[in-house]
């Protein structure tokens, strides 16, 4: 039972990481219908920026904030200078962001090299926490990742469903022409959304580099699982992204623990089943 509890906790930690990575992706891809295949590159850039800023300042919090600001600025530039002019043209957006992801990956490889980086956590999160119900000790940083993911999820849900900006974002997705006719600057709103998605990618990269580690190829890994999470949970739904991340994270960890040879089958088999019986995702809305 203790082994099962540890595997479950590891699955929840991985689910939290996948949700952090997918939250910005579902915000951009699910709500704006913008195919941002450079999302993984922004995540890896956030991890590298977090490492550099944390090393220079000696503060993990400053590194987290700095990486979020840096990737938010890059995300806003991508939307303002490149993707904004191709809004609604999914094929061009896909090809353009694939090219951007390759360029970002090569530039980061040239500057930071091919080694693995890990950000040093604060002393408060470097130990373990005893869980009396399960009678085991568990890494404090992993518990922090789960709490952070819950906090960001609640914050995103409140932003989208309870604020004026969230209302404008949803209206811009459903009827962009009507929102523009009402006097709102749709292009500027989408830049704000892309900046927020970039900031979330930076936070996810920083946390991933702290709880685990990052290296060239991490961008592709998290982009792939962000796509799976959004497909399983449903596009445009923060709750769907959370549910999708939970199912994917647990499926992957249970597969690694109990059937390591076929662990990848658990993850992608889950996606196939969802696509077969509910193509819009578990919580996503069917296209009319």
From TrEMBL:
Membrane topology listed for this record: Multi-pass membrane protein
Chief site of localization: membrane
GO terms of biological process kind: amino acid transport
Subcellular location: Cell membrane
Chain segments annotated as transmembrane: 12-31, 60-83, 95-119, 139-160, 189-212, 224-248, 255-277
Example of a GO cellular component annotation carried by this entry: plasma membrane
One example GO MF annotation: transmembrane transporter activity
UniProt keyword terms in alphabetical order: Amino-acid transport, ATP-binding, Cell membrane, Membrane, Nucleotide-binding, Transmembrane, Transmembrane helix, Transport
Family: Belongs to the binding-protein-dependent transport system permease family. LivHM subfamily.
The name this protein goes by in its record: ABC transporter ATP-binding protein
Native source species: Puniceispirillum marinum (strain IMCC1322)
């Amino acid at each position: 039972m203790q082994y099962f509890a540890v595997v479950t906790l590891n699955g929840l930690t991985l689910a939290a990481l996948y949700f952090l990575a997918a939250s910005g992706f579902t915000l951009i891809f699910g709500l704006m219908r913008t195919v941002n295949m450079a999302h993984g590159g922004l995540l890896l850039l956030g991890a590298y920026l977090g490492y550099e800023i944390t090393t220079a300042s000696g503060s993990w919090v400053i590194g987290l904030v700095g990486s979020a600001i840096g990737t938010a600025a890059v995300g806003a530039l991508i939307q303002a200078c490149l993707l904004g002019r191709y809004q609604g043209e999914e094929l061009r957006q896909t090809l353009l962001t694939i090219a951007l992801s390759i360029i970002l990956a090569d530039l980061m490889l040239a500057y930071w090299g091919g080694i693995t980086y890990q950000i040093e956590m604060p002393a408060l999160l470097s130990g373990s926490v005893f869980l009396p119900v399960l009678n085991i000790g568990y890494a404090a940083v992993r518990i922090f990742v789960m709490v952070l993911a819950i906090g960001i999820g609640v914050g995103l849900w409140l932003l989208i469903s309870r604020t004026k900006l969230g209302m404008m974002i949803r209206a811009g997705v459903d009827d962009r022409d009507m929102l523009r006719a009402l006097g709102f600057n749709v292009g500027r709103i989408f830049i704000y959304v892309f900046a927020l998605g970039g900031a979330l990618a930076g936070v996810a990269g920083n946390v991933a580099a702290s709880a685990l580690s990052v290296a060239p190829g991490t961008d592709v890994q998290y982009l792939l699982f962000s796509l799976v999470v959004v497909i399983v949970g449903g596009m445009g739904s923060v709750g769907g992204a959370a549910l999708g991340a939970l199912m994917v994270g647990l499926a992957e960890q249970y597969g690694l623990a109990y059937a390591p040879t076929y662990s990848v089958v658990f993850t992608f088999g889950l996606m196939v089943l969802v696509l077969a019986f509910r193509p819009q995702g578990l919580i996503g809305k069917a296209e009319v």
